[in-house]
Amino acid sequence: MPSVIHDGGHVHFNRAGGGPGLVMVHGTGGDAATNYAHLVPNLADIRTVITPDYAGSGETADPGGDLTLDLLIEQVAATFPEDGPSDLVGFSLGAVVAAGLAARYPELVRRLVLIAGWTHIGDPRLRLGLHTWARLAATDPESYAAYGPLVGFSPAFVSGLGEDGLKAMLAGDPPPGTVRQIELDLRTDIRDLLPAITAPTLVIGCTQDHLVPVEHARALHAALPGSRYAELDSGHVVLHERPAEVTALIRDFVTNE
């Protein structure tokens, strides 16, 4: 797994395919592999797909100190290829990071896709959900594991897994960076950054999102004049619930002028 050095630490990333760059940023509690490994083969035929792990996820260590949006933006920016602007995709917290990067470094971003993102965490219900998620991750791994399917996926998808599929989903402890990443979610407000985004943008919302309700994706779209908008009938983790549909939206948007 290649890496670059940023602020004295290694930022690890995967690379696949060929052609112009497509950088894909994962969400809270995930990493490059868990969020995107199953999507990469259907994008690597048209792009050099780069999937970084930011601080506290995958193979990238948490450097300690304040975990800030600026740090994650800089870590992801360090993984961009040097041969011209790249397309950029972000999911959940990754969408917030991607939007911030596109605002700070417009020269790096050709097209931008923001999936299940938000502008700020002023919604009391959203704050309650995130606080609960963080508390369970810190104190009760078994309840944390159960909470994920309940708020991360649509009811029909979870029921369709069956007992064995659900048991497999519940296995494992929270990734080490999860609590600090959720705490960052709760502090994040990108409303002042959004007017600086110049890249053509597609916002994707999820109609059955119980973690970050679809109204937040709609508000993100409304805050980006000229952006395109699509909704999928899915829970929050649309990358796994509707992988073919979300991949098709990404391919169409980055290849059609």
UniProtKB/TrEMBL annotation:
Superkingdom of the source species: Bacteria
Keyword terms, alphabetized: Hydrolase
All copies of domain AB hydrolase-1, residue ranges: 22-248
Keyword Hydrolase attached: yes
Gene Ontology MF term list: hydrolase activity
PANTHER family the record matches: HYDROLASE, PUTATIVE (AFU_ORTHOLOGUE AFUA_2G14860)-RELATED (PTHR43798:SF33), MONOACYLGLYCEROL LIPASE (PTHR43798)
Name recorded for this polypeptide: Alpha/beta fold hydrolase
